[in-house]
Amino acid sequence: ERDFLKLHLGPTLEKAGLGDKRIIVWDHNRDMMAYRAQVIFGDPEAAKYAWGMGFHWYETWAGGEPMFGNVAAVTQAFPDKPVLLTEAAVEKFDPARYQYWPNAERYGRAMINDLNGGAVGWTDWNILLDQHGGPNHVGNWCFAPVHADTTTGELIYTPSYHYIGHFSRYIRPGAQRVSSAPSRSTLLATAFRNEDGGLVTVVMNPTGAAIDYNYYVGDRSAVVTIPAHAIQTLLRAGKEH
Q1: 53 touches 5 (CB < 8 A)
Q2: 27: left (phi over 0), alpha (psi -120 to 50) or beta
Q3: In what order do the strands lie in the sheet with 230-236?
Q4: Do strands 155-157 and 146-148 pair parallel, antiparallel, or not at all (unpaired)?
Q5: What tens digit of pLDDT does each residue of 174-230 get?
Q6: What are 74-110's pLDDT values in tens digits?
Q7: How far is CA 211 from the centre of its chain?
Q8: What are the backbone dihedrals phi and psi of residue 126, each rounded to the nearest 5 degrees, phi first?
Q9: CB under 8 Å to 161, separation ≥6 — which residues?
Q10: Which of 32, 81, 201, 214 could make an SS bond with 191 (beta carbons 3.0 to 4.6 A apart)?
Q11: CB 123 within 8 A of CB 159
Q12: 92 phi and psi angles, rounded to 5 deg
């Protein structure tokens, strides 16, 4: 991949006047992304053609846990190369599990950890699939945030749609991630400052009990309750509000 990029793809696009097109390398699971980054970004002649790196979340196929640490490892080693989640989907579609909330929690956990690791964005495999979890030419039927029943015209919004909304509705293009540090391992959080100065903090509680916590911003604080198995977004208005 390194040699194809630096000897063929990169120079060809540049010669054709398409050198401004952003080339994303790897575009596969988190497990090998640090090694791929070392090989490709570590070569200056290849790295000059690569905008950044894409990654997916399917390394759990091997039986382990999501390898969020590799996202941070790449961004720390190559801070000038953006990393972007380019595909994620929950497989083994079953219409009886349209409203299966653990699917949404998988999204929330991944989005918080990947963004905290330095990802500049997060893209679902498909925002909309049909009532069979497709179309898919190899029969790999999957869940999506929204399903369309093509026989009735009904749109079915799954829990992952609402979890994604806690990020996509409030963290706007151009936002910068800022420090967010939960003091208890039971909570997950990420925070961004939008271009208008507004602060967005997404908090997730994957446990089976409601949690009261203190939300600190500078020298100010508020007591907040997050229900069991819930996600919430806290907003502090910016200069335009």
Answers
A1: no
A2: left
A3: 176-178, 188-193, 199-205, 230-236
A4: antiparallel
A5: 999 999 999 989 999 999 999 999 999 999 999 999 999 999 999 999 999 999 999
A6: 999 999 999 999 999 999 999 999 999 999 999 999 9
A7: 25
A8: -145, 125
A9: 145, 146
A10: 201
A11: no
A12: 60, 55
What is the identity of the amino acid at 16? A
Which of 231, 30, 199, 16 has its CA nearest to residue 114? 30
How far, in Å, CA of 175 to CA of 115, rounded? 12
* Residue with token string 């929330």: 108
Token couple for 54: 């894409």
Question: How many Cβ atoms sit within 10 Å of the Cβ of residue 160?
Answer: 25
| Closest to 50 measured CA to CA, from 20, 24, 68 | 24
CA distances from 216 to 16, 114, 166 (A): 52, 23, 20
